[in-house]
Amino acid sequence: MTRPTGPDSLLVIVPAFNEEGAIASVVSSVRRHLPGVPVLVIDDCSSDNTIPAARAAGASILPLPHHLGLGGCVQAGYKLAYELGYAYVIRVDGDGQHDAGDIPRIFERLKTSGCEMVIGSRFVAENGSRTGTVRWLGIRFFRAVLRPILGKPVHDPTSGFVGVNRRALDVFSRSFPLEYPEIEALVVLQRRAFRFEEVPVTMRPRTTGRSSITGLKSLYYIVHVLLGVFVNVLKYDRRFHRAQRESSRKPALNVATDTAGNTGRDAGPNARPNAGPSADRGVGG
Fold it and tell me: What's domain 10-237's superfamily in CATH?
């Protein structure tokens, strides 16, 4: 990987785990729609030919020494992008479901809106996207949970088709949810008063491999994400109230310091001399 040049430098990251059947077409599609934009595949310790397939398609590779899961994989890409100095990063999944033709629209919204995050959404414009019944119910559930926390609706909270700017990179390179990170990441940004927007995109059905959220994992997913959301809310609320208490103490300390200083200064030229016993004795000499 090389360091970027220019103020609008973009890196496309592709987290991948055993995606040899789709990764080459994903990389080739990104390069076709965004010629000259570097593509970084973060390989989460795959046991198949994901790395050689991605490299042959023209991607740079960040091989992880241990299997970290999706969140750790994405954070590794964010951290490298931040250290190299990229201004924007857009994440594309390695299974081929995200249409690289939508990346320029996400990138343009990132640059023009000033938002820290732009989400590629299947549902924001009622574009006819469909998903399984269980997943759809989960999406509706998390919409309802997130609405009062975020202060605004989010139509596709589980979308991994996400772009972030450098301010969000700074946060995510230091702290990022390790499992199922999409929903928790929204809460982390909101607690820092960052903003997000959604743009309509199309998503294709997976053609190879299988989803990491299947069967009984759906229940685990819901419980795990709910716990993560509420932990983040409590953590940042506690920090907020602590910061408020500390800021309220500072004026009081300043007043006390000023009062003490003024008392000492008042005993100067304009202060009346002490009329105590020793002064009387001096006069009576």
Answer: Spore Coat Polysaccharide Biosynthesis Protein SpsA; Chain A (3.90.550.10)
